[in-house]
Amino acid sequence: MSKTFDIAVIGATGLIGETLLMVLDEREFPVGNLYPLSAGEAGSQVAAFGERNLRVRAVETFDFATVALVFLLEPLAAAQLARIEAAGCALVDLTGSLSAQQAPCVVAGVNSQAAAAGRWLRSPLPAVVALASVLGTLRQVLGLQRVTVTACLAVSSRGRDGIEELARQTAQLLNARPVEPQLFDRQVAFNLLARASAEMPDGHARDERRLAGELGEVLGAPQLPVAVTCVQAPVFFGDSLAVSLLCDEPVDLPVVRHCLEDAAELELVEQGDYPTAVGDALGQDLVYVGRVRAGLQDPRELNLWIASDNVRKGSALNAVQLAELLLKHTL
Questions:
Q1: For the chain, the helix, strand and coil percentages under 3-state DSSP, each to the nearest 5
Q2: pTM of the predicted model, to two decimals?
């Protein structure tokens, strides 16, 4: 009988949590006992795993010494993190609340070797998973001098509240009623918002700083200049990225396309067509790439378009793949 591992999932009833449990089941991860936890009121909540409905327990009273692995989908207070560490648990963090000193940032297939460094790993923003998957492949044939990206982020990046807000605003507008923003600071339905998270004193949004930092860490190029704008798009699921790369030398487009075609984690859309989040990426484990073209003036410039499922591919799947790496190196 193969070895199994008891697991705790903090935030199992959220959008990402539900998908993570589904991916664990699909990939036949060796789960023994699974404990869905909540940092808030657990109440009578249940989480579906396979054919079972599991009662959600409170983090505060849970004994982490009973599990080998923790998925962290909700931010925890330092005291609760200390309890997990003291119990010797491996941990995969999706909250962005841990520092690089606490855990390396890893995208499976790009810098998987970093998973051997310790028992705690960070899964980056979904947009970073998509972008790093493409750039990690292209660095085989390109030297990067600068990355410029406009990331159009789905409202599901804000959880169910984001989805409910877009749905509510859409209904209000279609019924000729005034829009009442709640989660977002203004109308998001049929609109684009110039930032997708809180702005910091320097004018950059938090997710923009996080994207730039995590991308450099994953690519092993912390000094790589990254110019990023994160836009809140009126889309329920799926991130779309417009990317421009400045390379060391003139870009050989046939070589670039061949490199993208050969990558197992990518789907290159044929010339003359382009991928969309809704039509291609949703529910898929691939990152879709299209509109591959050279710059208009600078032959060292490469432009492309990326579409990826932010909940499944960018969050749940990468988290489970990191857990699989921990099985290999640590557990």
A1: 35, 25, 40
A2: 0.95
